[in-house]
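RECORD TYPE: inverse folding
INPUT: structure tokens
STRUCTURE:
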């Protein structure tokens, strides 16, 4: 399984600093437990773990597959539960930041703000080498730019590859961006509010 492979690579290469990261989708009911176990394994075997935290982009597919194949859905039943699990994972990582490096892969303003608050509470510098924020290229620049201006480590995620290979990715983004309730709706309302403010 891919997780076993990544664990082996972390054990081999993440001795002094984190070179290898796993991705954990926090909409999955088993991932907080997985995070805790990964940390325990790293502690016992004296290496560091890298975790890119995301909520997860394949919710419908996961549920459909589970239903078709007759096993319980691996995804939380609602958004609130996913949000809780995501933020709990952030708390766990910051608590153990000496051994865990994180990439906070989200466009959620609350989870981005939460991480800055957790860092402040633990007196960690804004540019702590084990903490990165990341948004997709072309999305949520208001989060990326404001964080970067305050000296946090920020990256923009740029997918690349042959068009046929990245088509599923582009379709997912198109779907997210056409939903008024989704990401673009949120960004649009922020832009409109700012336009109104500047008119006054
Ligand atoms: C830098 C970066 C890298 C990424 N890499 C990956 C990756 O490797 N793999 C991957 O799968 N995704 C990846 N994503 C996408 C990510 O998983 C999310 O789909 C996307 O970022 C939206 O979640 P959010 O936290 O930004 O915002 P939000 O709008 O707060 O959350 C939306 C997410 O909440 C969850 N959700 C929504 N409704 C429900 C519901 N009814 N029940 C349960 N959960 C629900 C879903 O995960 C949904 O995508 C990445 C995102 C970023 C920013």
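DESIGNED SEQUENCE:
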């Amino acid at each position: 399984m891919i997780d076993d492979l990544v664990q082996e690579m972390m054990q081999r290469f993440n001795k002094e600093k984190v070179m290898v990261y796993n991705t954990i989708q926090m909409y999955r009911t088993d991932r907080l437990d997985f995070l805790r176990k990964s940390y325990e394994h790293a502690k016992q075997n004296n290496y560091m773990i890298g975790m890119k935290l995301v909520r997860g982009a394949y919710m419908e597919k996961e549920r459909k597959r589970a239903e078709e194949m007759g096993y319980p859905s691996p995804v939380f039943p609602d958004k609130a539960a996913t949000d809780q699990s995501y933020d709990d994972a952030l708390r766990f990582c910051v608590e153990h930041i000496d051994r865990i490096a994180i990439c906070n892969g989200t466009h959620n303003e609350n989870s981005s703000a939460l991480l800055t608050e957790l860092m402040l509470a633990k007196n960690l510098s804004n540019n702590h080498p084990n903490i990165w924020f990341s948004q997709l290229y072309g999305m949520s620049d208001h989060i990326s730019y404001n964080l970067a201006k305050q000296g946090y480590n920020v990256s923009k995620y740029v997918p690349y590859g042959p068009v046929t290979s990245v088509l599923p990715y582009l379709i997912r983004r198109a779907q997210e961006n056409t939903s008024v309730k989704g990401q673009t709706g949120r960004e649009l309302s922020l832009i409109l509010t700012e336009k109104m403010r500047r008119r006054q």
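NOTES: The pocket of flavin-adenine dinucleotide is lined by residues 23, 25, 27, 54-59, 75-76, 78-79, 82, 105-108, 134-136, 157 (CB under 6 Å).
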